[in-house]
Amino acid sequence: MTTFGLAIKNFVGPAETPDIDALYREQAVELNRAKREAILHEMQQIVHERTIYAPILQLAFINAVGPRVGESGFGLIAGFPYTAPYEDLTLKGS
Predict the structure, then answer these.
(1) Minimal CA–CA distance to 28: which of 19, 20, 36?
(2) Which residues does residue 6 pair with via DSSP β-bridges, in sequence order?
(3) Chain segment 17-30, per-residue pLDDT in tens
(4) Which one, of 58, 20, 54, lies nearest residue 39 by Cα?
(5) Where in the chain are the domains?
């Protein structure tokens, strides 16, 4: 299908997908609903298997701890970007 793109060195163009194109043409003329659904599921599975997915995430929280804090709570829950649980936060004695 020409609607799918392939990125190669900053160039985005149509990808060569003869198998998906054939399935698309086949489902377009299929009158049996169950067969057409099976063809579309097969197309979806092929696209899913060929898709490259790379999530990009960077937590940009600015965190600070003052000199009076004994245990801040940062990092007490793995992967949690906030100070928690609050009941574990302690202050230094004077």
Answers:
(1) 36
(2) 13
(3) 888 889 999 999 99
(4) 20
(5) 5-50, 57-94
